[in-house]
Design a protein that fits this description.
The structure is a homodimer. Chain A is mainly beta. In chain A, about 5% of the residues lie in helices and about 50% in strands. Chain A is built from one helix and eight strands. The interface of A and B includes residues 7, 68, 74 and 98 of A.
Amino acid sequence: MKNKKINIRKKLSKFNDHWNPKVVAEMNDYQFKLAKISGEFIWHQHKSTDEVFYVVEGKMIIEFRDGKVELSKGEMFVVPKGVEHKPYAEKECHIMLIEQRGVLNTGEVKNELTAINDNWI
Amino acid sequence: MKNKKINIRKKLSKFNDHWNPKVVAEMNDYQFKLAKISGEFIWHQHKSTDEVFYVVEGKMIIEFRDGKVELSKGEMFVVPKGVEHKPYAEKECHIMLIEQRGVLNTGEVKNELTAINDNWI
């Protein structure tokens, strides 16, 4: 058991690319993913699952069709399933995502921002 | 959407009891719970689900039958389902737990440490 602890900051120091979530832990069929984000993502939704955003460092905004929420370090937000959202960050922001295994970062959209899934670090 | 963000530190400032997890968010059928812990808990297990510990402030130890792991601020650990564990903290420690809705803090044991479930803050 000893060596399975996960240090969030150490894991974050291992990559620098943006909008490319890395899996760091699994709980049943859910995954904890770390990502560095900067600039704008795309509008998308996840039809079958809620998605949790937790800010480790910096600030991010999640836009919704009816408003937006600004999240700072130590704040989290649950985006309900089926709700369209567009994350963005003015400056680089480090986040943890918690969602079901198999969820794509771009939801129902597939484009050049769609990250490889199940990418462990 | 605007007002549903969760500030972990603000939530933690709202209670002072130990070993009594408070729900702050729900994602599908999983819950995010905050707890302040101090001293020793009991040996227990969760037969049907993994459980995540994330340290927000301080240090804690999770003992297993074959060893132990020490977790500091910013570190997390997934206790696999069915693995006996005993959390403890020498000094007060603030943690976030992520587990399925309905999971009891004392697992298969029920005693005076068994917290009321689904206790939102």
